[in-house]
Amino acid sequence: MVAPLRGSRRDKTDLEFSERMPQRSSMIYVLAYPKFEADILRSILTFRSAHEPDRAGLVAPHITLVFGVQNSTPSEIAKHCELVATRTTTISVEFPSWEIVYDPFEKTHKIFLVTSTGTDRVTALHQQLYDGPHRSELHPDMPYKSHMTVATNVDRSVLEAVDVASIGTFPMKATIRSLEVVSLTDSRLSVIGSIPLVA
Asked: What torsion do the CA atoms of 23, 123, 119, 70 make, to the nearest 10 degrees?
């Protein structure tokens, strides 16, 4: 059952949380918040606050699994996530490296922490989550890449000068334990629910 979340784009690489881009209607996303050791999480939070403060203030460090669905209801998405979660065990992931990627939708550059261990399982989870009522909203021409965005800037040279090693020692290890269903409306994120994976 979907439980309320405690605490706390539109492309196929990340969430579109830019305040420069108005939201005309609600979009539903499915995220995974990797669980890091406390000191690593603190370092990531500090890094994001410095290098993507708007997004950092809106959403916790995450991997996006479903992007900006508009033609299904929150309950339809949540029910499908519940079904997928019943056959998915927790996923161990490692982020061993990073890369700078240009986002043509937001017309900006980003630093991705990319996964190695766990990539196949995260990608499979992404595919399963699209085998639902919103299947038509998947764009197969945009390959999925398992990653976590930690910095954003319109000027690539700014990101090239960033000391990514200041986050901590690579590889960074984490565990995905749940699916987080959220709604984005007018640059505001609302929680629909948190669905645990099989322990």
From this structure: 10
**Which of 88, 35, 93 lies closest to 195 in space, CA to CA?**
88
Q: Is pLDDT larger for residue 102 or for residue 14?
A: 102
From the number of C-beta atoms within 10 Å of its C-beta (0-12, 13-18, 19+), residue 115 rates as buried
Asked whether the beta carbons of 69 and 137 are under 8 A apart, the reply is: yes
Are 61 and 111 in contact, with CB atoms under 8 Å apart?
Answer: no
Place of tokens 């996303």: 29
Listed in sequence order, the residues at least 6 apart from 197 whose beta carbon sits closer than 8 Å to its beta carbon are 85, 88, 89, 90, 91, 176, 177, 178, 179
Determine the Cα–Cα distance for residues 105 and 9; give it in Å rounded to an integer.
8
pLDDT, tens only, 12-56: 334 444 333 444 578 999 999 999 999 999 999 999 999 999 999
Residues 160, 49 contacting (CB under 8 angstroms) = no
- Contact (CB, 8 A) for 129 and 98: no
